[in-house]
Amino acid sequence: MRFSDIHERAIARKGGVDALNALLPKLPPVAELEARTDDRYLSEITRCVFKAGFVWRVIDNKWAGFEAAFHGFVPAYWQQVPPDVLEALASDERIVRNMQKIRTVPENARMIVDAAREHGSFGAFLRHWPSEDEAGLLLWLKRNGSRLGGNSAQYFLRLVGWDGFILSHDVVTGLRHAGLLDASPTSKSGLQQAQAAFNGWHQETGLPYCQLSRILSCSVES
After folding, report:
1. How far is the CA of 108 from the CAs of 43, 102, 104, in angstroms?
2. Quick one: which of 107, 102, 81 has its CA closest to 91?
3. In the list 84, 134, 160, 219, which could disulfide-bond 10, CB 3.0-4.6 Å?
4. 31 near 86, Cβ under 8 Å?
5. Quick one: CA torsion of 191, 147, 42, 90, rounded to 10 degrees?
6. Which tens digits make up the pLDDT trace of 153-187?
């Protein structure tokens, strides 16, 4: 299916080109990925982990408390944090006291430190991973991080400005309607099918992957 057909359907559903364009994410300059410090990456990863299966606004409203409780999310500290510090956080009222999610912080800190050791920073690692292989990046994050399967890693990448798709319910529906996805969107084969679809549409339109993803979602009847 040509993306122009999907685009026209999204324009019609949203009431015109201007209305649709107002909904599209703005992609920041790629240099901002490298400018962001590693502690900010650990912060955003943790925010996405805690939001999964929870009311997002509650996490956002408490985030200043999270920043204080986790002392700014410095990866070098959290990768080797003493167990008693994690145990104390389980009773810290400044955060959501979910011990399973608290334990993801040192694991994801180690992932960031390891990538930074090889690439100079976690931002440099992300900057040089091409959008044409988001499926590979998502599998890498799932394999090397903690609780970064499903959509958590996709929302993290969108939040920090990495150009990629999000396999939301509407996007998955759109891919299935187009006959381009017949596997589970969380499986390796499903991610590769989605990647192939978005790579083709990117070549057709020249649009960023994040905008292709949003346009596809807007073309679906909710």
Report:
1. 10, 11, 6
2. 102
3. 219
4. no
5. 170
6. 999 999 999 999 999 999 999 999 999 999 999 99
Query: Phi, psi (5° rounding) for residue 11?
Result: -60, -45
Which residues have a Cβ under 8 Å from the Cβ of 165 and sit 6 or more positions away?
A: 134, 154, 171, 194, 198, 209, 210, 212, 213
Q: How far is CA 3 from the centre of its chain?
A: 23
Q: With b meaning 16 or more CB within 10 Å and e meaning fewer, what string describes 160-181? A: bbbbbbbbbebbbbbbeebebb
Distance of alpha carbon 172 from alpha carbon 178, whole angstroms: 10
Which residue is listed with tokens 């590979």?
136
pLDDT digits (tens, 9 = 90+) for 91-107: 999 999 999 999 999 99
- In angstroms, the CA 174 to CA 215 distance is 10
